[in-house]
Amino acid sequence: MICRNTLLAMFGLSVPLVLAACGPAGKAANPPGEPAATLEEEAPVDIELAKLMGDMQHHSAKLGYAIAGHNHPLATFYLEEVHEVLGELMTVEADDGMPIAHPAGVILEPALEALESKLAAKQSWSEISYQYELVIESCNRCHLATEHGFIEILPARGEPPFNQRFAAAEDLHLDRPVR
Ligand code: HEC
After folding, report:
1. What is the pLDDT of residues 113-137, one digit of tens each?
2. Cβ pair 127, 104 in contact under 8 A
3. How far away, in angstroms, is 139 Cα from ligand 1 center?
4. Atom from ligand 1 closest to the CA of residue 98
5. Per the structure, how many domains does the chain have?
6. Residue to probe by mutation, ligand 1, list 143, 147, 153, most atoms within 8 Å of CB
7. What is the DSSP string of 31-55?
8. Does residue 153 belong to any structural domain of this protein?
9. Which of 16, 81, 75 lies closest to 54 in space, CA to CA?
10. Which helix (H) or strand (E) holds 94?
């Protein structure tokens, strides 16, 4: 399963080739009249989940940099993006027999909503930053719950690896480095 999922994610276009490579040696790939039925049913879900997670990572990293930059509109923007991805995640009932929507709703959603209300209420940046770390912790808690604890996400720190400014406009006047 891991072989198939990983390779599918990496080489989504060469599916039959990959399957043949992963299947038991000597086994005919698809008997005539039986196209890759299971593959067609399962593959899109796997690919979708990995892609959604990539989006999660991208948006939540930028969210962290926007919070570190005390940039309210930008943090609000990325938080909405993360929430949108969560909405898509909630449509994936299960993946590889592992429930996805349920743990996502129980683990990530409350942390995300708490951050949303703190940000909307313009609470202190240290309060918002702390809640952001709880959101990242909830990503990891869900990875543990879905047997992917080896995927460990860290709060965004240091120089952003993006060609984008995250600092709030008013911070431009300050001495600290502008990102
Ligand atoms: C439903 C629980 C769940 C939640 C919530 C969750 N993940 Fe995941 N994540 C998974 C599973 C399951 C996989 C493995 C997906 C696969 O098999 O392709 C994964 C894979 C990943 C990967 C590896 C794929 C890649 O693109 O490198 C990253 C990164 C990731 N998640 C980031 C996040 C971040 C960031 C958050 C929180 C904002 C998050 N995840 C929230 C379950 C979850």
Report:
1. 999 999 999 999 999 999 999 999 9
2. no
3. 7
4. 12
5. 1
6. 143
7. -TT--SHHHHHHHHHHHHHHHHHHH
8. yes
9. 81
10. strand 94-95
